[in-house]
């Protein structure tokens, strides 16, 4: 094949024709072999790139005048590749002019068969002046125009358009990069594909074609330049290096608040490119976010577009909460809390316990809309689990206390005294059944074996917190043997710390200080909401964590929590002075007073009792002239002030499994409900709590316990808590009850 076009060229030069002879090649290998063959002494190879000005194409006049001044055999190269930038018609017109030029020369063209055949089709006189060398077909190259100030690593970039043709006809690269001031609009008819890289975004799209799915509007020029400066082999490789596994991008949110502005934007772009593989709520957020500035606001408020009745709401809510936990404190929470008001009574369902602002708003909504006790419990389980465990009825095994404190906690949270609670309070203010139902604290405390034991004296720890404490002990792997007793009256510390004389104690005053001092805007005169409860629960949890650490480290075998008295929030809410005036102000917020302080000499009042040198109130009143309470009060003899816990804490050593064997049972008129419980360790005194009722378990086989539950009549799923003695050792087990379907007898 080579010999044929060489013979044709040799024949042409021996002939008498003076018009140019064109030889077209379809691949650069054949073209370069031809140039090498004829690049010998006596021949002149005219490289038209040398005739072009910087960053320009060579002109036809320059090419012809240069050739006209050369003698001998002339071979012109590169010109066709320049002409392709001008387009199909321009290339044909230029070659027509060349073919009519009066000069003997050979023009090597590259991949111009279509245009040359079009010339022949319109003018057969040129059929002996055009030769088509049939070689292997090659794809055309892509030309990439790069703005002069942009830097692209690991890519060869030519310093102007005048260098383009030699590279096209020599390089095996699919793309040829050129620094140029020219716009591709100048060459809008180009036969070669031209891509413009006039900014970092375009360069990124060239480096990774998949990147083009991201809109340029997602970032500024400087932001795209930042990404380009840290770009690895691909966008995925870049994301992995910057933020870890691209499939787990949500985990970076834990560092988001402290990230630089650049990293926040890069993270946003990473999410836009990869999406969220593990969190469908985050995926929805990123799909609806087109600016890094909108990412955090959308994380917060996207949930508001959903109804909490939607089937997908619970999943979205939990996924969002997981994100917010990672994100931590964020200033947008204030705006989000304002937006919650648009949801009116439903607003509480959209809040979480991830921020103090939300917790406070939960209390505000609970007060404003007066949810029922069941509603309050159900909402709290979702949005504020710690509050939900606080609200759980504690199993005192004394109906009076169970009912009273369940209503007390509900009233405290909604900031209103329930009528039923008030009724019980008035009844007990007269009867004071705690004297019959409970032992004095000193009696209970004295019975405890204190060998290798540390005592925590928590001032003002009432029994209202017991359900919370019990739940946290289960979480922390602690066994809590809880006893209750009554304090001395009046319920003030000075006459309720007899236990501190016989043993060294760790004294914790934080709860009492909150109730008295009204710090951090807890003061009832500043805010009526019981937001101090947020801090109270946090303090108790930290105390239990400290105890767990000591027990696990073997510092003590047991730690005992004991309290001097409780406190009453409802006496503060009630805000009522009785008729008896104190001579001194500011003493115990008027819940009790020295007999010498009362100006009246004849006390006749159903709700005042005498205790040594004190008059003590048994209802929610306060004596006249006393200072109003800041947060909560004590000194009186309401149940919340006088009933106190004594809690023995040890490590659970729960190296055993507990499960319900009978996951589903049937009941009927004749068939009572019963379940079987498996415990992998033999334990005594096992009972279960179902719907607030206790049922004793009887061991029927090794590790198997039978429980008869005659009170169950309804078909539904029941939750079960398991106790060993007074210690909760398992929670939230469940079984299903179905009603037995009667069958008709087949008489035939």
- Report how far the terminal alpha carbons are from each other: 100 Å
Sheet-strand content, in percent, reads 15-25%
Helical stretch tally:
28
What is the global morphology? elongated
- Low-confidence spans: 744-748
Describe the protein in words.
The chain is of the alpha/beta class and 748 residues long. Among the domains are: 2-132, Rossmann fold, CATH 3.40.50; 437-653, no CATH class; 655-739, Immunoglobulins (Immunoglobulin-like), CATH 2.60.40.10. Helix content is 36%, strand content 20%. Strands 2-3-4-1-5 form a five-stranded parallel beta sheet, with helices on both faces. A hairpin with a 2-residue loop joins β23 (686-690) and β24.
Would you spell out the secondary-structure blueprint of this structure?
Blueprint: H1 2-14, E1 21-25, H2 28-38, E2 43-47, H3 60-68, E3 73-77, H4 79-83, H5 88-99, E4 106-110, H6 113-122, E5 130-132, E6 142-146, E7 157-158, H7 164-168, E8 175-179, E9 193-197, H8 200-207, H9 221-229, H10 235-243, H11 253-256, H12 261-274, H13 280-287, H14 292-301, H15 313-327, H16 333-340, H17 356-369, H18 373-383, H19 385-391, H20 399-414, H21 419-431, H22 434-437, H23 441-446, E10 453-458, H24 466-476, E11 478-486, E12 505-508, H25 510-517, H26 532-552, E13 558-562, H27 570-574, E14 577-581, E15 592-594, E16 608-611, E17 614-617, E18 622-624, H28 639-642, E19 643-651, E20 658-660, E21 664-667, E22 673-679, E23 686-690, E24 693-696, E25 698-701, E26 704-709, E27 717-724, E28 727-739
Parallel strand pairs: 1-4, 1-5, 2-3, 3-4, 6-8, 6-9, 7-8, 10-12, 10-13, 14-18, 21-28
Antiparallel strand pairs: 11-19, 13-19, 15-17, 16-17, 20-22, 22-26, 23-24, 23-27, 25-26, 27-28
Helix pairs in contact: 5-6, 8-9, 10-12, 18-19, 19-24, 20-21, 24-26, 25-26
């Amino acid at each position: 094949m080579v010999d044929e076009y060489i013979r044709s060229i040799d024949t042409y030069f021996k002939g008498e024709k003076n018009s140019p002879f064109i030889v077209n090649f379809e691949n650069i290998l054949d073209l370069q072999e031809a140039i090498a063959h004829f690049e010998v002494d006596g021949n002149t190879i005219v490289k038209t790139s040398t005739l072009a000005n910087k960053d320009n194409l060579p002109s036809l006049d320059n090419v012809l005048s240069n050739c006209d001044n050369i003698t001998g055999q002339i071979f012109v190269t590169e010109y066709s590749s320049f002409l392709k930038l001008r387009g199909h018609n321009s290339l044909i017109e230029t070659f027509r002019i060349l073919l009519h030029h009066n000069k003997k020369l050979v023009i090597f063209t590259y991949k111009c068969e279509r245009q040359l055949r079009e010339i022949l089709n319109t003018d057969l006189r040129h059929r002996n002046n055009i030769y088509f060398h049939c070689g292997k077909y090659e794809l055309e190259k892509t030309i990439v125009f790069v703005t002069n100030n942009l830097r692209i690593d690991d890519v060869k970039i030519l310093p102007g358009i005048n260098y383009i043709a030699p590279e096209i006809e020599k390089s095996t690269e699919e793309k040829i990069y050129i620094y140029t001031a020219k716009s591709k609009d100048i060459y809008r008819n180009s036969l070669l594909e031209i891509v413009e890289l006039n900014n970092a975004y375009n360069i990124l799209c060239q480096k990774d074609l998949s990147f083009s799915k991201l809109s340029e509007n997602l970032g500024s020029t400087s932001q795209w330049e930042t990404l380009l400066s840290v770009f690895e082999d691909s966008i995925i490789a870049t994301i992995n290096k910057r933020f870890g596994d691209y499939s787990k991008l949500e985990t970076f949110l834990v560092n988001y608040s402290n990230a630089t502005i650049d990293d926040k934007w890069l993270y946003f772009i990473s999410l836009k490119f990869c999406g969220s593989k593990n969190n469908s709520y985050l995926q929805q957020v990123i799909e609806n976010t087109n600016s890094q500035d909108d990412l955090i606001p959308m994380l917060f408020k996207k949930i508001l577009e959903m109804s909490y009745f939607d089937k997908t709401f619970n999943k979205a809510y939990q996924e969002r909460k997981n994100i917010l936990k990672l994100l931590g404190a964020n200033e947008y929470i204030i705006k989000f809390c304002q937006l919650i008001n648009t949801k009116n009574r439903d607003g509480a369902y959209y809040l979480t316990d991830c921020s103090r602002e939300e917790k406070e708003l939960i209390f505000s909504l609970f007060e404003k809309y007066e949810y029922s006790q069941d509603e309050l419990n159900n909402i709290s389980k979702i949005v504020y689990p710690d509050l939900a465990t606080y609200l759980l009825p504690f199993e005192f095994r004394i109906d009076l206390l169970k009912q009273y404190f369940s209503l007390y906690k509900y009233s405290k949270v909604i900031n209103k005294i329930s009528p039923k609670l008030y009724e019980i309070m008035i009844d007990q203010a007269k009867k004071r059944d705690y004297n019959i139902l409970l032992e004095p604290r000193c009696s209970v405390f004295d019975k405890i074996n204190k060998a290798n034991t540390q005592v925590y004296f928590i001032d003002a720890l009432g029994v209202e917190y017991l359900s919370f404490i019990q739940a946290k002990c289960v979480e922390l792997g602690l066994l809590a043997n809880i006893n209750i007793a009554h304090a001395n009256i009046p319920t003030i510390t000075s006459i309720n710390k007899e236990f501190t004389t016989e043993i060294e104690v760790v004294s914790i005053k934080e709860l009492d200080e909150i109730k008295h001092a009204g710090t951090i805007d807890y003061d009832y005169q500043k805010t009526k909401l019981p937001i101090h409860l947020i801090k109270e629960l946090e303090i108790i949890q930290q105390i239990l964590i400290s105890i767990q650490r000591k027990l696990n480290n073997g510092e003590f075998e047991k730690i005992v929590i004991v309290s001097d008295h409780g406190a009453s929030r409802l006496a503060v809410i009630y805000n009522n002075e009785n008729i008896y005036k104190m001579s001194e102000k500011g003493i115990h917020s008027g819940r009790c007073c020295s007999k010498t302080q009362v100006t009246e000499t004849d006390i006749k009042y159903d709700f005042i009792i005498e205790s040594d040198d004190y008059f003590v109130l048994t209802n929610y009143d306060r004596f006249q002239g006393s200072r109003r309470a800041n947060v909560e009060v004590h000194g009186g003899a309401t149940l919340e002030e006088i009933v106190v816990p004594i809690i023995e804490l040890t490590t659970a050593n729960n190296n055993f499994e507990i499960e319900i064997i009978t996951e589903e049972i049937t009941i009927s008129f004749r068939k009572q409900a019963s379940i079987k419980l498996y415990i992998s360790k033999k334990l005594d005194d096992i009972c279960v709590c179902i719907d607030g009722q206790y049922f004793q378990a009887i061991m029927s086989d090794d590790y198997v316990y039978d429980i008869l539950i005659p009170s169950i009549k309804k078909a539904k799923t029941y939750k079960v808590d398991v106790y060993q003695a007074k210690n909760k050792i398992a929670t939230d087990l469940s079984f299903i009850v179905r009603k037995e379907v009667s069958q008709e007898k087949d008489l035939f």
